[in-house]
Design a protein that fits this description.
The structure is a homotetramer. By secondary structure, chain A is an alpha/beta fold. Helices cover 44% and strands 17% of the residues of chain A. Chain A has 2 domains: 37 residues, no CATH class; 177 residues, Beta-carbonic Anhydrase, Chain A (3-Layer(aba) Sandwich), CATH 3.40.1050. Chain A contains 10 helices and 6 strands. Chains A, B, C, D: It catalyses: hydrogencarbonate + H(+) = CO2 + H2O.
Chain lengths: 215, 215, 215, 215
Amino acid sequence: MKYAKPLPSYLVQRYQGWKATIFSENKAWYRRLADEGQRPRAFIISCCDSRVHVTSIFGADQGEFFIHRNIANLVPPFTDDSDHHGTSAAVEYAVSALKVAHIVVLGHSNCGGVQGCYDMCSGHAPELEEKSSFVGRWMDILRPGYERVLDVPEEQRKDALEKEAVLVSLENLMTFPFVREAVEKGDLTLHGLWTDIGEGDLHQYDPETKSFKLV
Amino acid sequence: MKYAKPLPSYLVQRYQGWKATIFSENKAWYRRLADEGQRPRAFIISCCDSRVHVTSIFGADQGEFFIHRNIANLVPPFTDDSDHHGTSAAVEYAVSALKVAHIVVLGHSNCGGVQGCYDMCSGHAPELEEKSSFVGRWMDILRPGYERVLDVPEEQRKDALEKEAVLVSLENLMTFPFVREAVEKGDLTLHGLWTDIGEGDLHQYDPETKSFKLV
Amino acid sequence: MKYAKPLPSYLVQRYQGWKATIFSENKAWYRRLADEGQRPRAFIISCCDSRVHVTSIFGADQGEFFIHRNIANLVPPFTDDSDHHGTSAAVEYAVSALKVAHIVVLGHSNCGGVQGCYDMCSGHAPELEEKSSFVGRWMDILRPGYERVLDVPEEQRKDALEKEAVLVSLENLMTFPFVREAVEKGDLTLHGLWTDIGEGDLHQYDPETKSFKLV
Amino acid sequence: MKYAKPLPSYLVQRYQGWKATIFSENKAWYRRLADEGQRPRAFIISCCDSRVHVTSIFGADQGEFFIHRNIANLVPPFTDDSDHHGTSAAVEYAVSALKVAHIVVLGHSNCGGVQGCYDMCSGHAPELEEKSSFVGRWMDILRPGYERVLDVPEEQRKDALEKEAVLVSLENLMTFPFVREAVEKGDLTLHGLWTDIGEGDLHQYDPETKSFKLV
């Protein structure tokens, strides 16, 4: 791997600062986490977006959340094709190996992935329709959500589609036999959230009213 | 989606604390990030493991790092099968849409995914060999790394395989035409890191000596 | 300009070292910053003093902070006399063109400019009272602060005046209509800091208690 | 000063990291600098631009450079109007109080202030012509430089004007009697530099050829 380069020095400086303070203050706990293994309470599925830090929003320290982050916080439906499925592997590990008590899908405003899906489905992004587009093929997962937002006034569709990304993912989670079983036995609960980056608001899905409500 | 449940109250409480403090202190900046879009400097590929918080280690605030997290921080090789590839979609978005300057693959000690791969490859985890195992099929990506650690004394192989997870991912990144092109033009640099959770140490890959060195 | 001389060779040597290391490690990002323009999060007003490096204290890399440095980190009050106002121009550019989210005024211990102001106001530096003294006329900005430290025991007045330099600057910032408007709309927040050079301490102004508190 | 807000927590974290590492390692020296006062070798006049870190380029530690930063690294001509002149005060303090051996004016590529001056002088930025524009009135200092770049091919004028900003400042420095006297006595040397942000190049003014040469 001849292409690897040294870390930029501003990151080295910051790392050394972290080691001398936060790590040093928590050393005993981090050593126990290393020796005894993790035991996270929740599994979070969040977006790669640099503006969404679930650990910050929930004041989570190392050891609390098992976190998968992908474009648009999507879970594909269950398949048995033996292919590489990074998201499905994370779900399986969280539920079957770590036995987390909660799965939280966290969507967010201003999502570039969802914008791409919206543009693609409404015919304005032919490049995302191409077979070779990894983003396009990934966002195909959200196509069923696009159908459902067509009833919504046009200026609200983009936001509605971000919330559909959460719901489609929750629905797809239930297609995994080990998820369904754990949910039905009461060993696991699912939660759907959407956060507004600019306002700092957090909304959660309420199955009673079938809508997202401010927390 | 009738299965969604209300968020546990301890998380609601912490969210409200975050909103009143950290969000409030950074409101103006978060609004600008929402309005103008993200412009992250680096793309981080890290593990889902709850004990590895790259934003903490590097003192990064919202907006700085675009982050993909999956089991064992793996990147699969480039394919053109039009399937759902979450990791490849994240790489494409980071490099082609966001034009990040750095990709950092961050491995870590005590990695459960790598342990699984080790057990599977050494014949001690037949359940991971099964077609239906998402974790097993995902860890197949690391099989070429397993071959390379067989020369290492047995008690060091597990650690060596964690570092191979970083190197295999860097090698696979270079199979993506748009990654290779950006690297060759000098628009993108790759970095391989491995952190020891219990010691708080950070090691980086040095192509000169073909080994990981303490930062 | 016949007076310009070649750079001392120790600086040439260091520059060449920087180019081969730090620049080289960050080249892709620096090129993007050049092509796309800066988007700094904060505007820092700091002293020219060689002992105060705000980028080091906050681990900031190129692109993060827009920085104005003058004697004693002072902001003059708003005027509309069409004269050359370097500080006011920097404030206007930071707020109106760059739309920074934070303005930080950073004062410091052992400040020679503030010492001069103290000596001048207490009658011990007649040379600074002269019309021709640029330092004296610049330090006139801090005269309202001198009035306010007369209640303080004499041996603490010099330190108190350094903190007044921060407060007077924050007050003067609020006399700029575009600053006031951005603050009132929540698009901009102001912060007052004072650092003890010898102790490495950082204090911030707390409006509740009207005093500087250790961070 | 009721408007001051607490420092964003990511900056608090980074500060604490700095204190525990860089400060801690250099404590003895920083204490001496505090007790004995600064004795900087050079006075640097640089731009506020977030992409230009003169301390990084020259590997300067605390105590080495007395630094004034303003929009477009400009020095106004000497005047005796008793007004607030931040730049002139910094020049006076550096030369008369600190007796620096060098003054370095450091210009740079992609300068927003110089771009504004160029647009204003070529009739494309009427808003900068207004009396109330602090940036416009500050950039008036560079008008004599604009006249001199009209001979240059149009596509090179913007770069040429950035270099004129360095030369105009050096010329204006020589209008300060105490600067001229120190230069003529050989106690002070002046240096004109221009750096290309994207390429990391450094050019210095050579009075022999009346041009900037790569260092």
